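Continued from yesterday's entry.
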Amino acid sequence: MQINVGRPKDLEKRRQILNAAKSLFLKCGYHGSSMNQIAQEAGVTKLTVYNHFQDKANLFVCAIAATCEELISARPLNLHADSDFHKEFVHACELAMNIINLPEAIKLELLLLELAAEQNPLAQMFYEASHLRMNAVWENFFQQAIDLGFIQSEDLRTLNLLIASLLCGMRHQEVLLGMRAVPTAAEKQQIIQYSIDIFMLKYQKKP
């Protein structure tokens, strides 16, 4: 039986590089971060970085995808026939609002806008790793709610767009622009309750 003794060390180096890349990309942006800086931050050689990630663009996508996955996968959204749907819906909204208002998430949003403004193809990869990943979480949640009879059947994208608009809207654009502070815990609960009330007026399952 062949034993690959180098693998644990390789995985640890990869983790170090990803952590360093996440930190620098958030702090300095895509263009402000170099492979040399990332290697120094990770405590490895530049060649080691290239051995794990063929170029900066690939490292960027991997680092952003890892960051988004950590944020999104922390609390899975699973419904059951005996679930308290309102409570679970509140939980789902809290998860979404906590993610989008994290300092790291706000920096990621601004980084995405920077890349999009220069028509950088990385913007699409970034969008798929962050926004589309969160969309998939919401769509899975709503599909479960429909299957279990908690809400009326509707196109999942329509449901997703509605809840995102209710939770964020112009308010979040003002946060991104630095014109408004991140909502307090009490304000988040107010926003969530209002959003759910409006949503359920439209989609609550009729008896």
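--- second protein ---
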Amino acid sequence: MSQTTLPAPAAPATASATAAAQTSAAAGTSQRVAQELDQARRTGPLRQIQIPPCPTLLVRLRAAMAHAEPDLGEVSRIAGSDVAMSATLLRNANGPLHAAGQPVHTIGQAMNRLGLKQTAALMTGFLLRHAVPVNHPQLRRFWERSALRAAAMRFLAGQLPGLDPDLAHLYGLFSHVGQPVLLQCVKGYGGTLVEAGARIDRSFVATENANHRTDHAVVGAMVARAWHVAPVVVSAIRLHHDLGLVGGQTVDPEVQTLVAAGLVAEHLMRDHEGLDAEADWTQHQAAALHWLGFSSDDLADWQEALQAAMDAA
């Protein structure tokens, strides 16, 4: 189920035709992904997958942030309702990326220093991490790496006019969440993680599909959809290994931007950790950088700033 079958439209002859094609793609991508997930849930291997419920505190946080003027008092109450979450905010507010002047000691002080959006992003990551526990040697750094990916995505959004930093951060957090969910629900998936990480003759998702008739991109999209994450992020999670779609006209441009930025973020994260580049980067970096309007020199120029952001994460 990794590769989606999307019809290729005829090449548009005019700029207006191109715009119309992109509008049609934008309108159709989320619908096609939703239909695929519904069909797989009804009749396919995903019937056995138990989607973890969205935490009540996250539902409240989204409601508080949804207002034109977010409810700061409610955000503060949510943050203070969990000691560990409060400690996470205080630790970040006093960390090297944000620390300035005297240490902060209260949730209100931490929120003022971090800013509301960064506070909400940290709380979202905390709640997601505790809603989907990870207990397997192959995923021992899963949530740490998710935080690094989310930090890199937020940084890249700052370099890409039009890409919402909050959507980019959510995509970074959720893009691989299907792995721990599959680990909890599917017998033998732990062995698949080992096998997929070792094979060089086929991709990670190809091994998942060969063994289980589904993969973490599909399951991750299901989790994000069930938790009412924005449809553009759901679609990007579903398609984040379909990198050949970047630069085409069958998929919403915003989805393509998230997928392409996700590939760059993954590469930057691996570089930060001293790991070799993955096959996806080797094969698709040119298309991703071209779509985003980035260059290899840009990536080199951002290393110092990214180092601070990732160290904080």
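Confidence is low (pLDDT under 50) at residues 1-22. The radius of gyration is 20 Å. Will compare against the first tomorrow.
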